[in-house]
């Protein structure tokens, strides 16, 4: 049987997150065995993506309930692998971790969730561009460095 991507049923999102965060409109591709691909294929609205970032920013707590263990938040956003091809970045567990402590989930075509604990900040960018268009790929980072962080500091 050839490999085919299908969309997961709505009830198969991470049940521990779906109800508490109020996430109900999403798609997640699944593999031929019917399991959601944990590394890719999740489509969320920008607002729901921001909720996920806020959950991480608050160390796994949502509405005063511990949804994800605080120890996992710390471990998954640690600098595990140095990325030589991306200056200043390491790789955690599905997070790109900057040496400053900011971490980001990077999705297809420019979808980006940034969490910056230093500034108590969650930022979501939605784009669509070619992965080879380096100017566009760098735009969110330039906006963060030249406009967003300076506006917070002032």
Number of strands: 11
Could you state the order of secondary-structure elements as H and E? EHEEHEEHEEEEEEH
Helix content: 25-40%
Tell me the overall shape: globular
Structural class: alpha+beta
Q: Identify the strand order in the major beta sheet.
A: 6-7-8-9-10-11
Q: Which radius of gyration do the C-alpha atoms yield?
A: 16 Å
Mean pLDDT reading = 81
Counted up, domains total 2
* Major pleated sheet: 6 strands, antiparallel
Residue stretches low in confidence (pLDDT < 50, at least 5 long) are: 1-12
Topology:
Layout: E1 6-7, H1 15-21, E2 27-30, E3 42-43, H2 46-57, E4 61-62, E5 65-66, H3 70-76, E6 81-82, E7 89-91, E8 96-98, E9 103-106, E10 112-116, E11 121-125, H4 134-153
Antiparallel strand pairs: 1-2, 2-3, 4-5, 6-7, 7-8, 8-9, 9-10, 10-11
Structural account:
The protein has 154 residues and is α+β, with helices and mostly antiparallel strands. The protein folds into two domains: 1-43, no CATH class; 59-153, no CATH class. The protein is 30% helix and 22% strand. It has four helices and eleven strands, in the order βαββαββαββββββα. A six-stranded antiparallel β-sheet has the order 6-7-8-9-10-11, covered by helices on one side. A hairpin with a 4-residue loop joins strand 7 and strand 8 (96-98). The longest helix is centred in the C-terminal third of the chain and has 20 residues, at 134-153. It is globular and about 40 Å long. The termini are far apart. Residues 1-12 have low confidence and may be disordered.
